[in-house]
Amino acid sequence: IHFSPLISGITFGLGLAFMLGPVFFTLLQTSLHEGFKAGVYLAFGVLLSDTMLICVCYFFASLIRTIDAHQTMLSTVGGILMIGFGVFNFFRKVKVKEVDDDKKTVHAQFVLKGFLMNLMNPAVLFFWLGVVGMVNGKEGYTRSHELTFFTTVLSTVFATDILKSFVSNRIKNLLRPEVMIWINRVIGVVLCGFGIHMIYKVF
Q: 200 Cβ partners below 8 Å, 6+ apart?
């Protein structure tokens, strides 16, 4: 076991887990409305997306120039999708009985939502590019060290996302419908803000 990349991975993962991005707010909102399992599936979709992006950064470096050349288009499309998520959440009605049932929860739907929301934010790709570059340049780090670091980071983020889903689901019983409506509206506005910011940055 490589303890240095293990400790670095846990520390970095904990910091990353509490960054207030679109996924953070969507995870809380999903867990509040659809239950714990739905939040876990959404987090799993984000995990798959992050894993794929890290692999892209490592093994398809030649694609980075192409991605960089189309950053305006990617940011615009990603921003529009984010605004769409935000508008949907803003006008979403609160159900009297929240869904937290295996028979009712469409697992693939939440995995796909987490995967796409993370993937369509170009900032996530460029973030992982920076991290991969940082780790590659770390003196004394072998491929084994790098694998330990990224596995630990992703595992830590996923574990904390599960914890966030659990806590959100537990407190939903304490929230009145009016409060839930305002939570929806705030999260909707936040997601629209992220989307507008993504588009604004490239123009």
A: none
Q: How confident is the model at residue 175 (pLDDT cuts 50, 70, 90)?
A: low
CA nearest to 22, candidates 168, 197, 202: 197
Tally the C-alpha atoms within 13 A of residue 48's C-alpha that lie toward its C-beta: 15
Q: Is 160 helix (H, G, I), strand (E, B) or coil?
A: helix
pLDDT average, residue stretch 196-201: 78
Q: What is the chain's mean pLDDT, rounded?
A: 78
Residue with tokens 């991969």: 132
The pLDDT value recorded for residue 63 is 60
Distance of CA 164 to the CA centre of its chain: 12
Sign of CA dihedral 190, 191, 195, 198: positive
* E strand map for 81-185: none
